[in-house]
Write a structure and sequence with these properties.
The complex is a heterodimer of chains A (354) and B (387).
Chain A lengths: L19 E2 L5 H5 L4 H26 L12 H22 L3 H14 L10 H15 L6 H6 L6 H6 L1 H7 L9 H12 L7 H18 L4 H4 L2 H12 L1 H11 L8 H15 L5 H14 L9 H30 L7 H10 L7
Chain B lengths: L5 H4 L65 E3 L5 E3 H7 L5 E2 L6 E2 L5 E2 L5 H16 L10 H20 L3 H14 L1 H60 L4 H30 L1 H13 L13 E2 L17 H5 L12 H13 L34
Helix pairs in contact in B: 3-4, 6-7
Pfam families (chain B): MAT1, zf-C3HC4_5
Subcellular location (chain B): Nucleus
Protein name (chain B): RNA polymerase II transcription factor B subunit 3
Chain lengths: 354, 387
């Protein structure tokens, strides 16, 4: 951040190259931008870690039981997430949520599964929470009761239980820059070009909008900026208008570098921009039922053991805290002296994990 | 019976139980006292008057006289905080100091004071605090830091508490004496300061009062002049009508105009008077103003981002079916929250050009540290992606 504290250093003084561009200051650019290789690596390591953790859990439950379980691969996990990305769009249509909510919820779901595995948290539940969270962060709030009552077999607690986990996995980066917004901007700005017929433009805009929706199913938003995705979608609908606009934006260079990016983006959208085959996903889901993390299924031995372990830990922590407070009280100062305070901090710095 | 006949004697006694708020007389007793002694002391309000506590249930604990039998009953309080009626005081203390009939400590007649509060413990607390405040009059400026000032205040409070509740009285008194000895000069100085301030306030008040008086005099004078002039004008009209042979209506109109001219001249001069008189008021307000800390406007966002302003040029209007409804909304229902289409357009345009030239990452660069990421020490069930 280049926050200058002196109010008199106005933009006039500094040239645009020194100042940080707005998009590059966003959390989306800083923490949610990856290369395709990074994405693949993240997913595969996540899958490997998760499988070994769940295998341990199975073994702890009953030794030898994990040998005949076929765990999901990273690609299968991704397939399942993609299906539920599509489900979010259906739900948004049902609730008549604005596109902003839909796009934000989709981004939340995809980001969540860059940090978590479907074998721990089923996307069916996470999707509901992500959508509910998105309604709040985009300022289209809906009452939790009416939200849950419109979705079959869902209670308010199902939505809320995961809310903190989801927010935490998102790193509390709730603000998202969306391609559909950028596309709207392109639609407005193309009108300033000379010799534009509104009919052609609106036809291209409609088509491009469809491509933006398709792009939501892909990983494009993790690799490219929203404006690049929007321009690629626009280019899919009308290549001439898109390149004319891009050239107008960079009048100094004969061939703006952004035009070279459009090809790969278009490729991604065309390749991945369709909903997954339902039969294949159903097969994945059937196998998921068998290889779910037993620590997350209420009623299993491992689950109970885990709960007990957590309770024991919490109890221990409570005792330690009470002891520290008692010592502080005896020392005379109810807020503790410097030393005691430090000791308490050492004991307990994660107050928020329950 | 007695109450029914009150009207005969010309007195009205309001019947008031302990619950009614009308328990205290508004000022020093209206009823003639039976004693010739004038009792001083009591709690005074800022104007110097003592308000005496007065209740229909008053009853002398020694002679059992109550207000029913003796409407003029007046109860006084001894330094040991026991009540006694005036006639009992006269009777018991005729021969000089004598023991208090309730607690047997030796008291004098002049030690008795009027009662202000219904609750005698409050009476006592107020007296103790007044006494303490006279000597423990240090100010914040007399201490190097807030901590020592607070310690001092706590000590004062402890002394007051001890005296009020009779805890270690001898020791506390010794403490007060020691303090008095140690801080004699400072106590004196602070007392002088306090007196000076009081004098200053009094002077201010006096000045204001004088000003008001002057003003009132001036107004009276002006009114008088005006009246005289009116009389004179009337007389002149009559005289002229008598002597002159001109048109009566014209004459009247002419003299009216003259009168008006004079009145307006007077108004102008009086307004200048009022201006000079309000200078004192102005001075006072200026003094209060100088004590106010200058209000520096708070600017929450002093950042300096590049917002792609050179990448696009906003138009007056666009062909935009999406925002048609908002723009056609003449009543402003959709714009109620401060929504403006222009701003939405500007944002969209900014989105369209933001990061157009950022090349995508490739290969395996090290990911940036995420400040808000999930704590790896936290819940073990959140599997971390970072390898």
């Amino acid at each position: 951040m280049t926050a200058s504290l002196t109010p008199d250093s106005q933009p006039v003084a500094s040239s645009s190259s020194q100042r940080q561009p707005l998009y590059e200051a966003s959390t989306q650019y800083r923490y949610w931008r990856f290369s395709p290789e990074q994405l693949a690596h993240m997913r595969s390591t996540l899958n490997v870690d998760a499988v070994s953790a769940i295998r341990d859990a199975f073994e702890a439950d009953s030794p030898g039981s994990s040998s005949n379980v076929s765990f999901l691969t990273a690609e299968e996990e991704h397939l399942l997430v993609k299906l539920y990305v599509g489900k979010i769009s259906q739900l948004c249509g049902h609730f008549r949520f604005p596109e902003e909510v839909e796009a934000t919820a989709v981004t939340y779901l995809k980001r969540f599964y860059l940090k978590n595995t479907v074998m721990d948290w089923h996307p069916k539940n996470v999707m509901l929470t992500a959508l509910f969270l998105a309604t709040k962060t985009t300022n289209h709030p809906i009452a939790l009761e009416s939200y849950a009552s419109h979705i079959p077999k869902t209670s308010p607690s199902d939505v809320l239980d995961l809310e903190f986990l989801v927010a935490q996995s998102l790193g509390f980066d709730f603000a998202v820059w969306h391609p559909h917004k950028a596309l709207w901007g392109i639609w407005l700005d193309v009108q300033t070009l000379p010799g534009i017929s509104i009919e052609d433009l609106s036809k291209a805009y409609e088509a491009a909008h469809g491509h933006v929706r398709a792009a939501r199913l892909t990983d494009a938003e993790f690799i490219y900026t929203p404006s690049q995705i929007a321009l690629a979608c626009f280019s899919l609908a009308s290549p001439t208008l898109a390149s004319a606009w891009a050239r107008a934006k960079f009048p100094s260079s004969a061939h703006p570098p952004v035009l070279d990016l459009l090809g790969p983006i278009k490729e991604i959208i065309i390749r991945d921009g369709s909903p997954p085959d339902v039969e294949a996903v159903r097969e994945v889901d059937r196998r998921l039922r068998l290889c779910k993390n037993p620590e997350k299924i209420p009623g299993t031995n491992v689950y109970i053991k885990k709960q007990q372990e957590q309770e024991r830990k919490a109890e221990e922590k409570r005792l330690r805290k009470a002891e520290a407070a008692r010592i502080a009280m005896e020392e005379g100062d109810p807020f503790g002296s410097e030393l005691v305070k430090k000791a308490v901090e050492d004991l307990d710095d994660d107050d928020d994990d329950d | 019976m007695a109450q029914r006949n009150n009207w005969l004697r010309g007195t009205t006694i309001r019947k008031s139980g302990p619950s009614t708020s009308n328990n205290t007389r508004t000022n020093t007793p209206q009823l003639p006292s039976t004693s010739k002694t004038i009792y001083g002391g009591g709690v005074q309000d800022p104007s110097g008057r003592t308000t005496e506590y007065f209740s229909m249930d008053d009853k002398c604990p020694i002679c059992d006289t109550d207000r029913y039998l003796k409407p003029h009953l007046r109860l006084l309080v001894s330094p040991c905080y026991h009540r006694l009626c005036e006639s009992c005081i006269d009777r018991l203390y005729t021969l000089g100091p004598a023991p208090c009939p309730t607690c047997n400590t030796i008291q004098r007649k002049l030690g008795y004071t009027p009662q202000t509060f219904e609750d005698l413990t409050v009476e006592r607390e107020v007296a103790v605090r007044r006494r303490i405040a006279k000597e423990f009059n240090k100010r914040r400026e007399d201490f190097p830091d807030l901590r020592s000032y607070n310690d001092y205040l706590e000590e004062v409070e402890e002394i007051a508490f001890n005296l009020i509740n009779d805890i270690d009285v001898a020791e506390t008194e010794a403490r007060i004496a020691r303090y008095r000895q140690e801080n004699a000069a400072l106590i004196k100085l602070n007392q002088q300061r306090e007196e000076e301030y009081q004098r200053y306030l009094q002077e201010q008040e006096e000045m204001e009062r004088q000003e008001r008086e002057l003003r009132a005099q001036e107004l009276r004078r002006i009114e008088e002049e005006e009246r005289e002039e009116r009389e004179k004008g009337k007389q002149a009209i009559i005289d002229k009508l008598e002597t002159s042979d001109k048109d009566a209506a014209r004459l009247v109109a002419k003299s009216r105009m003259e009168a008006q001219r004079r009145a307006s001249a007077r108004a102008a001069s009086s307004s200048s008077i009022s201006f000079s008189q309000s200078s004192a008021h102005l001075l006072r307000t200026r003094a209060t103003q100088s004590a106010v800390v200058p209000d520096v406007p708070h600017i929450p966002l002093q950042d300096d981002y590049y917002a792609y302003d050179d990448m696009f040029k906003m138009q007056e209007t666009y062909h935009d079916p999406v925002s048609d409804a908002v723009r056609r909304d003449k009543e402003g229902i959709m714009r109620a929250g401060g929504y403006q289409v222009n701003q939405a357009w500007e944002r969209a345009l900014r989105f369209a050009v933001a990061g157009l030239d950022i090349a995508p990452l490739s290969g395996m660069p090290t990911p940036p540290a995420e400040p808000m990421a999930v704590d790896p020490e936290g819940p073990a069930d959140v599997v971390m992606a970072s390898a």
